[in-house]
Amino acid sequence: MSGRSILGIILVAIGILALAYQGISYTTQKKVIDIGPIQATKEEHHTFPLPPVVGVICLIGGVVVLVTDKRGN
Description:
The protein is an alpha+beta fold. The protein has helices at residues 3-21, 52-72, and strands spanning 23-35, 38-49.
């Protein structure tokens, strides 16, 4: 398996995941109160949206790389 095939497979996988999830969510903890031994924290949920166009571009790019790699052999 050549490097181009691996790149194509990775791009296809990223494209499928980007279309399936459409964003990356993560949680951070922030200190609200810190008075000596008393501490209070707050969880904040953040979302990094991924437009569907990114998934489609990765998917199409991966397919193109795989097809051109097969023709080259």
